[in-house]
Description:
Layout: H1 16-40, E1 46-49, E2 53-60, H2 73-96, H3 103-125, E3 129-139, E4 142-145, H4 151-175
Antiparallel strand pairs: 1-2, 2-3, 3-4
Amino acid sequence: xxxxxxxxxxxxxxxxxxxxxxxxxxxxxxxxxxxxxxxxxxxxxxxxxxxxxxxxxxxxxxxxxxxxxxxxxxxxxxxxxxxxxxxxxxxxxxxxxxxxxxxxxxxxxxxxxxxxxxxxxxxxxxxxxxxxxxxxxxxxxxxxxxxxxxxxxxxxxxxxxxxxxxxxxxxxxxxxxxx
Length: 179
């Protein structure tokens, strides 16, 4: 079958429905877990795995690892809101440019977006982020503790990890010899 019309290659468009659903699920899980933490952990910490994992209610006024924790509210709050909005715009702009073979990034970007939205929601609502997962271990005679975190932080970390996997796989694919 032959036609006189030029053969057009269809441009790939990533699914914004997928972006919305994965981000929304991440956001809902974060908000629900924080609501649970506020109610349940107000009574006190819950030890999940003795000497390793506990749930404890914490209010983080700063960023990751408490960065800017002691900065004045009029500086800290706008700073984190602006950084979050810029990050969300960046995520959506990256998502628009996805290629069909970028599976890790297809999942990573919505997870980061959902996590960012969860923490922004807290900052707008409370002026701080609700954290409640505390992991720690003892070795070498000392207690080693990871900063307290939440479900949004887990989504962000998994998403960033998937973004790194995509970057590594993309570099390998571009370095592979052409056949």
